[in-house]
Amino acid sequence: MSGNVNIYGRARTGPYGTVSLTGNDKIGATFTESQRASNVAAAIVEGWVRNDFTMDVPDVTVPTELTTASNLGTVTYSGNENITLGPGDYRANSFNFSGNVVYTINGNVRLNISGPVTASGNAKMEILNNSSLTLYAGGSINLSGNGC
User: For 26, phi and psi rounded to 5 degrees?
Assistant: First the structure.
């Protein structure tokens, strides 16, 4: 994590995984800021971070209709853009938004992204009332900064 990331819960990694906290990052299963940890050593002592997680996770099957849905291509937005995605099924090669981008989901959206997903800076995704987003990500997901 980097920037001003707050996890209101716990982080679990595999036996060789790591969690890093930098800047104003905090972690803890409480909304009381003074009880959340701002460094990994304290987070481990409090039980907010553990590095012994193992689990068999079966591959998710992407619904067939998403493999031929409207192709958004390589999605990249930065700066102060406001983008709205209406109801429907979509696919994309990758998804990258940064800066002050606001990506709004208006309706029930299913999105299949075959490559990496990156959100940084103050970029954020808003899901409006009575809307939903089902995301299938085939690549890495990297969320950092103040948004997301």
Answer: -145, 150
The rounded distance, in Å, linking the Cα atoms of 94 and 101 is 16
pLDDT at position 128: 96
Task: Give me Rg for the CA atoms of the chain.
Answer: 17
pLDDT of residue 83: 94
Q: Which residues of the chain have pLDDT under 50?
A: none
Sequence length of the chain is 148
The two tokens of residue 31 are: 């909304």
The amino acid at residue 113 is I
46-73 per-position pLDDT tens digit: 999 998 988 888 888 999 999 899 999 9
**HEC per residue, the chain:** CCCCCEECCCEECCCCCCCCCCCCCEECCCCCHHHCECCHHHHHHHCCEECCCCCCCCCCCCCHHHHHCEECCEEEECCCCEEEECCEEEEECEEEECCCCEEEECCEEEEEECCCEEECCCCEEEECCCCEEEEEECCCEEECCCCC
Count the Cβ atoms, other than its own, within 10 Å of residue 118. 18
